[in-house]
């Protein structure tokens, strides 16, 4: 057996743990604050924040699931349980969940990017108004159903097993590895292309109308910068799957296991960059976040800067 398979590097997992210690609790506090603000203000019940809320939930669930089935799978007792009952979709879910949560996050960043483009460049178009006025449950349904349908191809695979109770590495059929890595590369590439195209078109639009930018529109742009910073993490994941797909196509089994060992870092960056983007690039939310940490009341006058109301302001400028 290849040495890379016998002894995959462990330091990426340790780096992931270091990232998780401050980031996961911070992310949970951001989610709690967002839910609290949605109770007090219509601003945080808009389509943008509904999509962002789903993205936060997907990130947190992804990290918790990854930690349980990958990060701590070597704990005594737990790995015995996993190994003994691996045929009951435990081994399969360990592998398939990576792609399932990847596609959910890809859908989220695409929805956020397209929403930013529509709200800023075409605020009173029919499509924008339909999206802005859609009930929260419809936004949530679309957010979760679309990536689930894409993931059916992956979730149906069950032919996986742990190689040994000592290493607990997943052994997957080569055709499945080739198909899944290629599919992931295509989905991530499309995600980066759609989002980059949205922001390029948005930049051209703002350049053309730079003389008529209102304060309300500036707030919308700040939210766009928040999503743009999150998009950078997807380019890291894109590079990861370029190499992973190359090694799977060339049958380099050792590098495949090495790349799989590096996955915790790229996955951690993809998930944990979002709360920092929100806090650093969304001043309204960060102020309310600090007040939440201090157990202070929400200031409605500070919170109620509605993205829906901004459309009427933009109408006078464009």
UniProtKB/TrEMBL annotation:
Record key words, sorted: Membrane, Transmembrane, Transmembrane helix
GO cellular component: membrane
Transmembrane segments: 14-35, 47-72, 92-114, 135-155, 182-202, 223-243
Keyword Membrane: yes
Xref: Gene3D superfamilies: Rhodopsin 7-helix transmembrane proteins
PROSITE patterns per the UniProt record, alphabetical: G_PROTEIN_RECEP_F1_2
The keyword Transmembrane helix belongs to this UniProt entry's keyword annotation: yes
Organism this protein belongs to: Caenorhabditis briggsae
Localization in the cell: Membrane
Protein known as: Protein CBR-SRV-28
InterPro entries: 7TM_GPCR_serpentine_rcpt_Srv, GPCR_Rhodpsn_7TM, Neuropeptide-GPCR
G-protein coupled receptors family 1 profile domain residues: 26-278
PANTHER family the record matches: CARDIOACCELERATORY PEPTIDE RECEPTOR-RELATED, G-PROTEIN COUPLED RECEPTORS FAMILY 1 PROFILE DOMAIN-CONTAINING PROTEIN
């Amino acid at each position: 057996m290849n040495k890379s398979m016998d002894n995959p590097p462990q330091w990426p997992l340790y780096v992931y743990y270091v990232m998780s210690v401050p980031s996961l609790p911070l992310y949970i506090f951001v989610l709690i604050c967002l839910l609290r603000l949605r109770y007090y203000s219509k601003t945080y019940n808009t389509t943008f924040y509904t999509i962002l809320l789903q993205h936060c939930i997907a990130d947190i669930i992804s990290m918790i699931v990854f930690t349980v089935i990958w990060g701590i799978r070597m704990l005594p007792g737990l790995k015995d349980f996993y190994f003994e009952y691996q045929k009951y979709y435990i081994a399969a879910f360990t592998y398939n969940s990576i792609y399932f949560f990847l596609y959910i996050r890809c859908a989220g960043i695409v929805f956020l990017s397209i929403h930013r483009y529509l709200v800023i460049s075409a605020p009173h178009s029919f499509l924008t108004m339909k999206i802005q006025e859609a009930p929260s449950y419809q936004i949530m349904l679309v957010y979760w159903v679309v990536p689930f349908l894409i993931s059916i191809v992956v979730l149906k695979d069950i032919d996986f097993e742990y190689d040994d109770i000592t290493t607990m590495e997943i052994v997957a059929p080569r055709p499945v590895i080739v198909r899944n890595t290629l599919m992931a590369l295509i989905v991530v590439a499309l995600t980066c292309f759609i989002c980059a195209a949205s922001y390029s078109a948005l930049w051209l639009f703002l350049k053309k109308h730079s003389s008529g930018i209102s304060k309300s529109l500036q707030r919308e742009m700040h939210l766009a910068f928040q999503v743009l910073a999150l998009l950078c993490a997807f380019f890291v994941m894109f590079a990861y799957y370029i190499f992973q797909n190359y090694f799977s196509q060339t049958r380099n089994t050792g590098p495949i296991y090495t790349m799989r060992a590096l996955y915790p870092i790229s996955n951690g960056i993809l998930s944990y960059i979002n709360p920092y983007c929100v806090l650093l690039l969304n001043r309204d939310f960060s102020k309310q976040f600090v007040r939440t940490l201090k157990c202070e009341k929400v200031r409605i006058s500070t919170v109620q800067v509605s993205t829906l109301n901004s459309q009427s302001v933009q109408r006078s400028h464009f």
